[in-house]
Amino acid sequence: MQTAQIAASWLQIVGIVGDARNDGLRNLPMPAVYVPHTFRMMEGMEILIRSQAQPLTMLHAVREQLRTINPDQQTNSGVNDLETQLTYEVEWQQEHIAAWIFGVIAWLALALAAVGYIASCPTQ
After folding, report:
1. Domain boundaries, given as residue ranges, for the chain
2. pTM, whole model, 2 decimals?
3. For 74, which DSSP code?
4. Separation CA 88–CA 94 (nearest Å)
5. Are 62 and 47 within 8 A, CB to CB?
6. Measured between alpha carbons, how far is 101 from 104 in angstroms, rounded to an integer?
7. In Å, what is the CA distance from 54 to each residue of 10, 62, 82, 112?
8. How far is it, in rounded angstroms, from Cα 21 to Cα 91?
9. pLDDT tens readout for residues 57-99
10. What is the pLDDT of residues 37-64, one digit of tens each?
11. Which of 19, 24, 37, 109 could make a disulfide contact with 29, Cβ separation 3.0–4.6 Å?
């Protein structure tokens, strides 16, 4: 559904959110409108489930619940837990490497400062 079709439909505003960085930290936030998923179902949609149990142990139960809601709804076999899914994201990988490099530089700076402090202390 295009933006014009969404604007022509009757919708109730239920809230306003601040800027969301959904495209990594490098890119500026873009204006967005959040609509119910039932209003505009997109291909490749993902469902995230929070659980105390191991995520992949709940897969069968989640698929059964989806079948009770909509028997025609397809689910694919590409299922991951959230941690694995995030590590495949390019933005996460880039920011993870940058944070790791800054951490190494910080440790080097701390070591150099400690050596410099020890070297500047008068010996007795």
Report:
1. 46-79
2. 0.43
3. -
4. 11
5. yes
6. 5
7. 41, 13, 11, 44
8. 11
9. 888 888 888 888 888 877 777 777 778 877 777 777 888 888 9
10. 766 666 767 777 778 888 778 888 888 8
11. 19
